[in-house]
Amino acid sequence: MADPTLKAALRGGEFIVAPGIFDMISARMADRMGFAALYATGYGTVASHLGVPDAGIATFTDMVSRMSRFAQGTRTPVIADADTGYGGLLNVRHTVQGYEAGGVTAIQIEDQEVPKKCGHTPGRRVIPAEEMALKIEVAAEARRSDDFLIIARTDARTTLGLDEAIRRGKLYARAGADIIFIESPESEEEMRRIGGEIDAPLLANNVEGGRTPILPAETLKAIGYNVAIFPAIGFLSVARALEGAYAHLRRNGDSHGLETYAFSDMNELMGFPEVWEFDAKWARPERSQAAE
């Protein structure tokens, strides 16, 4: 079931900073940091699971199992990317029910045409706003708990302009979305307009090297935002670390002098102490001793 603490935090005026997770190592690492929410990135999850671009290739079946594992393997509420809802209205209902049953707390659905594309890449096209509003209505009706939050994302800014993106954000809020996500504003001024004109909780997407300026949390809160996600921070950091580590190994033929995460710490992160404790509790005498 959805974790009620995320909705309570938003209602209480807390500004939510959510790091991107993309596999269970990143999920477990972020889970211990004390964040109010984790953001399960579609880009990172598709890249790590399938090794392909975030371009509508992954299916509902691919994603619901991953998103459910993130939610079930952590204690922190999980906000999960669900692309376009993986199809039409019936697909949206099925997606919401699947994600909620898997333990996800908030689901993000966007108004792109199928196949969708990553929000900070070119070539994105959107469906009619009224069609997306119906998807949001279906999503809101399909959830079993009001603690399960619906995030409506519009990608209209890049192709249709900011005015249309703001219009869609207002429409999606009226349709029942709990949080509005205007993707890819291109300046702080645009973000201030969004915060000033949309009377609903707002999400800022912070992608290192992306189209949107990354503003401090204090500034985002002051101009009307409530949530800041950092979807790429995990997989970009890991990619840089792996590039350096593998280059070191190729260059030197060994790992001497390479700074890595401690193997003992990784054992602890993955839960090996519990396995060892279980083994010790249920250890059986040796066969030879049993024969005596």
TrEMBL record:
InterPro entries in UniProt: ICL/PEPM (IPR039556), Pyrv/PenolPyrv_kinase-like_dom (IPR015813), Pyrv_kinase-like_dom_sf (IPR040442)
CDD domains found in the cross-reference section: ICL_PEPM (cd00377)
One Pfam family linked to the record: PEP_mutase
Alphabetized PANTHER family for the sequence: CARBOXYVINYL-CARBOXYPHOSPHONATE PHOSPHORYLMUTASE, CHLOROPLASTIC (PTHR42905:SF5), PHOSPHOENOLPYRUVATE CARBOXYLASE (PTHR42905)
Protein name, per record: Oxaloacetate decarboxylase
Native organism: Muricoccus vinaceus
